[in-house]
Specification:
Hemimethylated_DNA-bd_sf; single chain; 24 helices; SirB1_N; F-box domain-containing protein; C8orf32 fold; alpha+beta; 3-stranded antiparallel sheet; 5-stranded antiparallel sheet; F-box-like_dom_sf; about 10% strand
Length: about 650
């Protein structure tokens, strides 16, 4: 019997990956991350050649990076088959992310030079939003939860504002910007945008385009209708979907109704008449109509006009697709400024109704809403408004809404429903409006007034916005002696902020609270009552009389406020008066209080959890504290050399 000798499996040659066709190897490498791909490219020249295939790096680039700065011109490169530098572009993005991570870590660790580091990171552009969102999301996995969350959110907020200001600058000086009204209003949203993927300018236009697609799908015969029929049908569709207007149970003057992006993102799409008209006009233009809000006093309307002829030889048609009479006056060089006419101008208030108003009715209403207006002004009220005037009007609406907010709710206005919670900082909203009024002033006097308010707002709440302030505001102050400066070189406020940022914090020890020398009346009272500093930095407490929860971040041995504040707050009527210790405390992420020791009731660990800490103090205290210690109901200090324990 013949025996068949079998070759031992141990002697068989192992299959080699590089023996596969290059196309198969590339398909395998496409499943790897960038670091592994680079490691494999060092194995051999063959793998190096395959791993450097640009399509692999293009896929990695588009998968790993969502946000892009305009300077990279990504959409142009994606559509250009001759572009082959995808790996180099990936390296650029990776380098900017690494630098941003290091900058945020530096701001967490070091108490000086933080603003300079933030400015360095912002120079990389909008692309670093990817890594900032990641740092904010992963903060809970680190020991510096609050600090990492605060500094990443701070840089992200500055970045969002920077994008908005760049867009406003383009709109201000260029005339070739597409959809300038929608872009200008979407920039306001960038000031109130939190650490979220959605809500930026691109997302706002994406939602507007989705609305257009929904109208097209819901009214398939729309393209066959006359301009008048289109305008009415679009208004009916948007109102039926409740995508314009405000629900009856909602507050008309609520802050979130003032912002285009917020109105598009909220489940109920609530918006003021101006925002409703902007949304309606955008949809109308997508179907070939000329549409824009007009500056009608008291209540904004949308004015819809038929499309212009496709060629100079074609006749101009009216709203019913009939040729205009020969005596109808038109301006081919400025068609949006032609005299209002029932044949070419249709007025619709989508906020209230889909039924159009006639020109005669609009004119008669002006007799009551603007009785002192000149004939020229009345004509202008009925013509399409410029993006500049609509942005100014929206900014004034925001300021009026902020000013009407009750004092107790002045920090943060919240609107909750079953699907969404809108959480808007009143300070951020006012900051957006003031920036808009400075970038697009209505007059020299208006510029000076808005600039004064903006400067005060910046100094009190937004000193981290140094780059935006110096790049966009100081150049506008030329000739205004009270504010003058040349891009921050000589401006006293900017110099003060930079010096403060570069000055190490001086330790304030408890033993130094009672310096040697003559004692003041307050110190004598403190010694007589045996009072001393009882609470440490990071202590969470409830105010004995007012009931709010706060956290200590500093103290004084006695009340150090000015006499007017002491008298106004009735400090001397307290049982222990002004001689007792007073504590600096955060009430939420921007509001602070100066609290007498006798009014502090420290909370026990079982009364205040880590979840309570994150909900009550979401951001600002990250500048002072790294994390919350649930065992002691105390926040752990971030700046180690400030307020140390003896």
């Amino acid at each position: 019997m013949t025996q068949i000798r079998r070759e031992s499996s141990a002697l068989r040659p192992l299959p080699r990956l590089d023996a596969l066709p290059d196309e198969v190897i590339q398909a395998i490498l496409q499943q790897l991350d960038a670091l592994t791909l680079i490691t494999i490219s060092t194995v051999s020249r063959h793998f190096q050649a395959v791993a450097n295939e640009q399509l692999i790096w293009k896929d990695l680039l588009l998968q790993n990076f969502r946000f892009w700065d305009d300077k990279h011109e990504l959409s142009k490169k994606v559509g250009d088959p001759s572009f082959h530098d995808w790996k180099d572009l990936y390296a650029v993005r990776h380098t900017s992310n690494v630098a941003t991570r290091r900058a945020v870590q530096y701001m967490i660790d070091e108490p000086v030079g933080r603003l300079a580091k933030a400015q360095d990171a912002l120079e990389y552009g909008y692309g670093i939003k990817d890594v900032l969102l990641e740092l904010n999301k992963d903060a809970s996995l680190t020991d510096c939860v609050l600090a990492q969350r605060y500094w990443s959110q701070m840089v992200l907020a500055c970045l969002n504002r920077s994008v908005a200001l760049d867009q406003w600058t383009r709109i201000r000086y260029r005339t070739d910007i597409a959809n300038p009204t929608e872009t200008a209003l979407a920039c306001l949203d960038m000031f109130v945008l939190g650490p979220t993927v959605e809500g930026d300018i691109n997302d706002t236009f994406r939602r507007l385009d989705e609305m257009v697609d929904a109208v097209r799908a819901g009214t398939p015969d729309l393209d066959d209708q006359t301009p008048r029929q289109k305008a009415i049908a679009i208004a009916e569709f948007l109102r039926a979907k409740k995508w314009v207007g405000i629900d009856e149970d909602r507050d008309y003057y609520s802050i979130e109704n003032q912002f285009l992006g917020l109105a598009l993102r909220s489940p109920h799409r609530n918006s003021l008449p101006l925002i409703s008209c902007v949304i309606y006009s955008y949809v109308c233009r997508a179907f070939g109509l000329r549409a824009q809000p007009c500056s009608y006093p008291m209540h904004v309307h949308a004015v819809v006009q038929p499309p212009l002829p496709s060629s100079p030889t074609d006749p101009q048609l009216d709203l019913d697709n009939r040729p205009l009479p020969p005596d109808h006056s038109t301006d081919p060089f400025n068609p949006d400024k032609e005299q209002p006419s029932d044949l070419t101008h249709l007025y619709i208030d989508p906020f209230n109704s889909a039924t159009p108003s006639t020109l005669s009715r609009m004119q008669s209403q002006l007799q009551f809403t603007a009785p002192n207006a000149t004939q020229t002004q009345r004509v202008m009220y009925l013509l399409p408004a410029s993006h500049r005037s609509l942005l100014i009007r929206s900014a004034h609406n925001i300021i009026r809404s902020v000013q009407s907010t009750p004092f107790d709710a002045a920090h943060r206005q919240q609107t909750s429903d079953t699907h969404n919670t809108v959480d808007i900082s009143i300070y951020d909203a006012a900051y957006a409006a003031l920036f808009a009024l400075v970038m697009f002033p209505s007059s020299a006097q208006g510029l000076a007034s808005s600039l004064s308010d903006l400067r005060q707002h910046y100094a009190h709440h937004y000193i981290e916005d140094l780059r935006n302030y110096t790049n966009h505001i100081l150049p506008l102050t030329t000739g205004l002696g009270a504010f003058g400066g040349d891009r921050g070189v000589t401006d006293p406020l900017v110099k003060l902020i930079r010096d403060e940022d570069n000055t190490p914090k001086k330790a304030k020890r408890r033993s130094e609270l009672r310096a040697s020398g003559p004692t003041t009346n307050g110190e004598a009272e403190a010694e007589e009552s045996g009072s001393d500093i009882r609470f440490r930095v990071g202590t969470v407490f409830r105010h004995r009389r007012q009931g709010y929860v706060a956290v200590v971040y500093g103290w004084d041995g006695k009340c150090e406020m000015e006499e007017r504040w002491i008298l106004g707050n009735g400090v001397d009527r307290l049982p222990k008066g002004r001689g007792q210790p007073f504590y600096n405390a955060f009430v939420d992420d921007r509001s602070t209080r100066y609290v007498a020791q006798e009014n502090i009731v420290p909370l026990r660990p079982d009364e205040f959890s880590a979840e309570d800490a994150e909900r009550t103090f979401p951001a600002e205290i990250g500048k002072w504290f790294r994390r919350y210690d649930s065992q002691t109901a105390r926040f752990v200090s971030n700046v180690r050399d400030e307020y140390p324990e003896d």
